[in-house]
Amino acid sequence: MFERFAAVILVVGLLLLFTPVHAEQQAQPKLMLNGNAIEFEVQPVTVEGITLVPLRHLLEELGATVEWNQEMKAFKATRGDRVLQYKIGDAAAYRDEEMIVLPVPGQVVGGHTLMPVRFVAEALGAEVGWESYTRTILISSRSKRPGVVSKVADGAAVEVLPIGEQHPAAETVRLIGVNIPAPGGEGSEQSLQLGKAAAGSILEQLEGKTVGIEIDATKRDSEDRIPAYLYLDDGTMVNAMLIAEGYAITEAVPPDLRWRELFQSLQSDARMNGRGIWKQEATALPVSPI
Fold this sequence. Notes:
Blueprint: H1 2-18, E1 30-33, E2 36-37, E3 45-47, E4 50-54, H2 55-61, E5 65-69, E6 74-79, E7 82-87, E8 92-95, E9 98-101, E10 107-109, E11 112-116, H3 117-123, E12 127-131, E13 136-140, E14 145-152, E15 157-162, E16 171-175, E17 178-179, H4 189-204, E18 210-215, E19 226-231, H5 238-244, E20 249-250, H6 260-272, H7 279-283
Parallel strand pairs: 1-13, 16-19
Antiparallel strand pairs: 1-2, 3-4, 4-11, 5-6, 6-7, 7-8, 8-9, 10-11, 12-13, 14-15, 14-18, 15-16, 17-20, 18-19
Helix pairs in contact: 5-6
């Protein structure tokens, strides 16, 4: 009898050992809105690779007013001139008069209504990006000025032609919080050379692309440049990408500190994992005996 029981335990143990881990079992993504970490009353869940978060909390953080119909299990959210309506469980929602199919339906978990975070944020006019190294969802609801990158300027800066102006003149945009180390500075000469080349290559790939320019507190710096966060069409923040890849270091320049917490986290992760200019430093760290 004991031998049979032991055999069953062994089989169950082997099945657990070799059962693949699905995306839903990974640590849930973090979320930052306009530079601030968002803590929810219930944990977000991941369904078919889509992150769902508590609806009311997110809507209120985005500055929307919410009307909830308990009988219909439906809500109406208004932010500025945008109106979002949805009935829990439906495959589609309405933004103003436009029907939008959801990647996965909203659901009720523990008495809380959860909705796909990207859908809700974008439906109300916010920008949504994803930082894969630290599994962070970035949401920016700040207004953005559209433009087309015309060329790379010196350092962490690009020239941008504004869109929508009758006679646009190129403006130099300096990436807030980003410093591309020059060879001869602190660190390995080889890694600094590679970092500068890689960062320059990324910025050069922006030429001809449409970007969104998000201003912080400073309108123009002492060199008549526009300090800004630069966004691609898919929500990627270029400032964050350069730091996350280890091609730049972050620097705090008050009062433009909106995304400082994110940049510090990305730099720590890049340094710990030896990406970009941090590669030699990481390989020099002592190997843990555990």
